[in-house]
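**Protein fold record**
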Amino acid sequence: MSDEVYLMVISPHPDDCEFGVAGTVARLTKEGKPVVYIICTNGDKGTGDRTLTPAKLAKIREKEQSAAAKVLGVKETVFLKYPDQGLEDCHEFRRDLVRQIRQFRPFVVATADPYRKYMWHRDHRITGTVAADAVFPYSRDHLSYPELLKEGLEPHKVREIWFWGSEDPNLRLDITDTFETKLAALRCHKSQVGDVPPEMKARMQEFARMNAKGEKFEFAEAFRRVEMRY
């Protein structure tokens, strides 16, 4: 069983975590706080290249995600390998996330906000919903998935959830000093973003400035923070 970690990032696809939380991850790991990644799908649909098969693309994206995690100092990356666009709000997926939460015992879980209005990738919406359910009540209650007790995985109470992509953020974290590290991690996802062209970098800078509005720092990642009350 792994030691407890500060932050567990539950990402729908390879690269979503870099867009959503990589600046914060880089800052935390620099401070010595352990971070783990849980990558839910294999990303095998995310390409416009018709020469790539899903199996080949999945291998590429796993390799890219591992490289990005190394740049950020992530302690461990777990690939659940569900098919891209194939996530469901179901017993199996929820139990898989509970298993990871009970194993790593994070203080914070970060994931995609499932409550955005109108348009949002279905895998993002389902990941956020199932991750929140896995945190509470399923990871807390010993009678939820009792088979996990036989694996030595005791209940765990996550203290906070941070939802990225929220339309109603209440937590803005300074990534001014780690913005370039965030970009370096994104560059590992060459199948998705190439080398991060200048116009993309400019958009990301503007978004990070917007997230920091009203704060004393220049760049931020913004989240909807939920503090658990047990």
